[in-house]
Write a structure and sequence with these properties.
Strand order of the largest sheet: 1-2
Mean pLDDT: 87
Helix content: 55-70%
Low-confidence stretches: 1-24, 41-54
Structural class: mainly alpha
Largest sheet: 2 strands, antiparallel
Shape: globular
Order of helices and strands: EEHHHHHHHHHHHHHHH
């Protein structure tokens, strides 16, 4: 192999300038390796710092935007019908289909969020510095919103919340009209990220495979057994979401292999959804997240969206994705304020939309909550609180 002379191989940054250190007598392979290292170094150091645009993953943005849309539909339930003894059969059927979609499809929102978060974690650096940085950020966000939730509770109820485990994990205090806090999501995410960090440091591939297989099989068996025995798995329990750690790991590290089975995940999702609907019709009480259909639904949606290569950039989707944390955190406060207005001014909530049995109130609620949630996120991103909404 020939020898070439190169004088600009290694560079160090001083402020915004470079100091060039000469190197000579390098082989062609060494030169190419140096250029590759230098290019990677430049991308890592300068992306987003000197005007270079940070590339976003359009498929992951789409997944996060889709998930926050599912959250809004599940919590706001804008399409509710006024049902009485004179309601037509066709209306009853439509109402049942919408309810089945809410329970079988829109409840995949939180699992999809967890899969995306864990997927990104496994794709990043696995060293302890990144883990510490990620964990510190999550804890700061969690503590901020817990404080906001407690302040809002004190203002709205004029009571001091009792210290309890539910308060620590972000499930309480409850707000009037809208129920439990949503910040159990952040507490569980902190736990899942910690488990994921420990999980990825298992060096033995066989041991990791056995552990993953055990977690997945146990969770599937446990969820189905509880369903058939009508045993409740509370929606905020961590056991609902531990299964997504090995799932996200294999999606991040063996994407082609996992994505190639996406059609079978879809079939399993459809079959277990009919299974859930059948059991509900016969008096069984489904758990919110501890169901096989929800697992396969979340994995199916992730795989189909992630596998699309031609998703074009969309500014609206990117912004919804970027500020999904703020949208998720704030929407229940506006939902509470809407129902407070309804209660205070004694507004009639029984009317149908244009004479139809479709409830007018919940449609208006949807527009009200979505508008003011987006507006408040937009205003907060202009302040020092931006880090807590993005």
């Amino acid at each position: 192999m020939g020898i070439i002379y190169l004088n600009t191989i290694q560079s160090k940054i001083i402020g915004k300038k470079f100091r060039i250190e000469p190197r000579a007598n390098l082989s062609l392979k060494q030169t190419l390796d140096c250029f590759a290292t230098f290019e990677k170094f430049i991308k890592n150091q300068f992306t987003g710092k000197i005007g270079m645009r940070v590339e976003r993953n359009n498929s992951l943005d789409t997944l996060k935007a889709l998930s926050i849309a599912f959250v809004f539909i599940w919590h706001l339930r804008p399409f509710q019908f006024i049902i009485d003894d004179s309601t037509q059969v066709s209306v009853l059927m439509i109402a049942k289909i919408i309810r089945d979609l809410e329970v079988q499809l829109f409840l995949t929102a939180v699992p999809i969020f967890y899969i995306v978060s864990l997927y990104l974690f496994f794709q990043k650096s696995s060293d302890i510095k990144y883990f510490r940085k990620r964990l510190t950020k999550l804890i700061k966000i969690y503590l901020f919103w817990i404080v906001v939730q407690n302040i809002f509770f004190v203002i709205s109820t004029r009571q001091i919340p009792n210290l309890s485990w539910q308060l620590i994990i972000g499930l309480e205090p409850n707000l009037p009209f809208v129920g439990d806090s949503v910040f159990y999501f952040l507490f569980n995410l902190i736990c899942l990220i910690t488990f994921a960090f420990l999980y990825q440091f298992i060096k033995s591939y066989s041991l990791k495979k056995i552990l993953s297989f055990t977690i997945i099989i146990f969770c599937l068996f446990y969820f189905e057994t509880c369903y058939l025995l009508n045993i409740t798995i509370l929606y905020h329990w961590l056991i609902n979401f531990v299964i997504y750690v090995p799932i996200a790991f294999y999606l991040a590290n063996f994407p082609n292999k996992i994505l190639s089975f996406k059609f079978y995940y879809l079939i399993a999702y459809i079959l277990f959804s009919f299974h859930d609907i059948y059991l509900r019709d016969y008096g069984y009480h489904p758990n919110i997240y501890g169901r096989i259909a929800i697992i396969f639904g979340a994995v199916t949606i992730f795989c189909y969206v992630r596998d699309r290569k031609n998703i074009k950039e969309n500014l609206i989707i990117q912004q919804i994705s970027k500020y999904s944390l703020g949208l998720f955190s704030l929407h229940k406060y506006w939902q509470y304020l809407f129902f407070l207005l309804i209660y205070h001014y004694k507004i009639d909530i029984t009317g149908g939309l244009f004479g139809t049995p479709l409830s007018t109130m919940f449609i208006i609620e949807g527009f009200f909550v979505i508008f003011f949630t987006f507006l408040s996120v937009y205003l907060l991103k202009l302040t020092c609180f931006k880090q807590f909404v993005s």
